[in-house]
Write a structure and sequence with these properties.
The chain is an alpha/beta fold. The chain has a single domain, classed as Rossmann fold (3-Layer(aba) Sandwich). 45% of the residues lie in helices and 13% in strands. β3, α4 (86-95) and β4 (103-105) form a beta-alpha-beta unit.
Length: 149
Amino acid sequence: MNILFICTGNTCRSPMAQALLEKMAEEKGLDIRVTSAGIFALDGEEASHNAIEVLKAEGIDLSNHRARLLHRDLVEEADLILTMSKSHKDAILSKYHFLEGKVFTLKEYAYGKEEDIADPFGGDLESYKRTKEEIKEALRQLTIDNGQF
């Protein structure tokens, strides 16, 4: 299965989700490929400093992450697209109508509720920690409780 996480700039939420799910998948022996991109990403931009810092506590090195702008090839390759907000989901579906049924917000897919993951961009380290935990809990719901991947 090929999973694509989407956020705005691909420097905070979606790379954190990608890295966290990759680690979970490795630990559980899940056969999935995980990528991420941003709707308004600047190709090559580094992950935010605070995103790198909060993932260190998870034993994850995000320092080599480079942002990528969402493009058609990425969405066509994905089996499942999980966005960090409803606005990301709406933007993708307005441009790529054929993706209906394979694009969800992360919380919608995990809990059945179309809610946003808080955007920590520009916030302090504590806001990044809260966002990381929000993402991690939703991913745990999918990988452990539901076995959806």
